[in-house]
Amino acid sequence: MTYHYTIPDIPPSNNKFIGRKNQWGYQKSKKQWAQLIAACCRPKPPKPLDRAIVTLEYHFKDKRRRDPDNYSGKMILDGLTAAGIIADDSFYCIDLQLKAVYDGRGETEIFIESRC
Question: Residue 50: which CATH number?
């Protein structure tokens, strides 16, 4: 079974927080993303998925150069775990795929395929 969710935003780049003294800003953003994931990711699986392929497809508003490692999905994966959609975001539980589309939409699509 595959679950498909659309989040009407793109998480901030890791560059916004890494190496900066902005711990409270990071925690605030992480909490906001957890709430956004919980609100937008419906329907949820009956129980958290133990093994899954998670694809994050970022639909950027412009064609600026962006590095995939800065959009690793940290806040999204933590939100999916907190919402009870995936059991854990470790390598054992998920295979992660990142994609970028430059179509001006400014949103994130999440595809989660159960691997039982």
Answer: 3.30.1330.70
